[in-house]
Inverse folding.
């Protein structure tokens, strides 16, 4: 009897220990899961902060060269929106706002000031000299903040700074003694922050804020999977039977999806159900050392696009990244460049093979246009250019508006006194300044923001 009782006790204790161990392991897993979730949320919030501040800085820089009150108001509204987003992102980061009062204060102030200007600039016919001076100082401050945050982001991507160190910075920024790497980085942002301008305005921080249907496919019938497979095979110069069907893809432009191997890489090709046109294609291969010059890559892209049978396409900008030269093409109509009709071709600079193809813009926007009569001459449009800019070239272009409509404009390529390049668009019918873009030019190519 005693032996049986002892066995029962040992059995119950063992079961209890197993149950406790199971609960402990489950608890550890749950804690680990919550830790990973919190870290991912912190990373997302930080990336959102960097992106918002970068877009805010870009909008502020553009606002300095705008002469049209409506566009100035739109840019100031954009600044306000990005400032709000950046503030919300900072609120989700694990550090005290007291130690980052300059950053928090700047975001609040620049957003409120931009909101105020967006409400008043139309009634007063543009920004005053004082407002432009304030915007210039705010733009300088935003640029410092953008560069510092992007430096931190680059260090994270390079592995020199981890999100764990950013999370650990919360204790230091809240008053701890030991300064981790992330805490030191954020202190540097605070220390390097320029003195904010004194803003006089009516606000609480004053010291005295693609086409829905593919036009190019309109009227075309639906194709079968077999026809779409033949289209994808011709695009890749492969036998149709060598392709693997990956199924249907929904969205604004429903497609058939196929996979095939060519040139040592796996290609994924999307063919539209309506009309059977290649929407996009992408190769998984990583290019090796570049053997082709940029000029040779551009020639290869030109030759490939000609094979696709798209008429009257002109090359505009290009950019080289990770061994791939990406070239932008737009449809030209009666000498007017139609930017919505965009096709992008990516060429590997090691072999000259096509790595990517994207015709979403072209298929979404291309149609037979009736361009309006040009009632504002080039000379009249030049008067809308800021005196701080020097015009380098001019052409007529169709650009998309914020509401998805199209505007025929005079496009002026301009140079600022500090060497920066800008594209300024003046409506060729109304004379209003429609849009301004910043050109980023380096050895890799040209980018617009």
């Amino acid at each position: 009897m005693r032996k049986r009782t002892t066995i029962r006790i040992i059995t119950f204790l063992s079961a209890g220990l197993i149950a406790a161990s199971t609960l402990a392991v489950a608890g550890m897993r749950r804690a680990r899961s919550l830790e990973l979730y919190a870290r991912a949320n912190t990373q997302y919030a930080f990336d959102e902060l960097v992106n918002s501040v970068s877009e805010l800085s870009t909008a502020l820089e553009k606002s300095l060269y705008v002469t049209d009150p409506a566009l100035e108001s739109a840019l100031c509204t954009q600044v306000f929106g990005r400032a709000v987003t950046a503030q919300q992102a900072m609120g989700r980061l694990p550090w005290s706002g007291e130690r980052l009062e300059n950053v928090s204060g700047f975001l609040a102030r620049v957003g409120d000031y931009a909101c105020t200007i967006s409400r008043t600039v139309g009634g007063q016919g543009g920004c005053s000299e004082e407002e432009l001076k304030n915007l210039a100082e705010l733009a300088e401050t935003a640029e410092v903040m953008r560069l510092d945050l992007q430096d931190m982001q680059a260090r994270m991507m390079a592995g020199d700074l981890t999100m764990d160190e950013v999370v650990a910075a919360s204790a230091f920024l809240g008053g701890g003694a030991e300064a981790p790497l992330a805490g030191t980085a954020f202190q540097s942002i605070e220390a390097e922050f320029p003195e904010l301008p004194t803003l006089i305005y009516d606000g609480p921080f004053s010291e005295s804020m693609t086409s829905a249907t593919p036009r190019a496919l309109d009227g075309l019938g639906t194709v079968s999977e077999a026809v779409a497979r033949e289209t994808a095979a011709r695009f890749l110069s492969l036998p149709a039977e060598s392709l693997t069907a990956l199924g249907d893809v929904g969205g604004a432009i429903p497609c058939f999806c196929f996979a095939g191997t060519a040139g040592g890489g796996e290609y994924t090709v999307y063919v539209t159900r309506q009309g059977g046109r290649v929407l996009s294609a992408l190769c998984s291969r990583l290019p090796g050392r570049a053997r082709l010059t940029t000029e040779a890559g551009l020639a290869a892209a030109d030759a490939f696009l000609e094979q696709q049978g798209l008429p009257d396409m002109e090359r505009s900008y290009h950019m080289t990244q990770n061994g791939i030269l990406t070239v932008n093409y737009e449809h030209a109509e009666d000498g007017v460049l139609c930017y919505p009709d965009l096709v992008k071709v990516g060429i590997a600079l090691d072999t000259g093979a096509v790595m990517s193809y994207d015709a979403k813009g072209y298929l979404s926007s291309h149609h037979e246009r009736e361009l309006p009569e040009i009632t504002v001459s080039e000379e009249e449009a030049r008067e809308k250019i800021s005196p701080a800019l020097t015009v380098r070239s001019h052409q007529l272009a169709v650009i998309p508006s914020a509401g998805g409509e199209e505007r025929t404009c005079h496009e002026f390529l301009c140079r600022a006194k500090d060497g920066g390049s800008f594209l300024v668009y003046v409506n060729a019918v109304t004379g209003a300044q429609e849009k301004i873009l910043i050109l980023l030019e380096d050895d890799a190519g040209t980018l617009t923001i």
Remarks:
- The chain has a mean pLDDT of 81.
- Residues 24 and 110 are 50 Å apart (CA to CA).
- The first strand starts at residue 244 and ends at 249.
- The two ends are 86 Å apart (CA to CA).
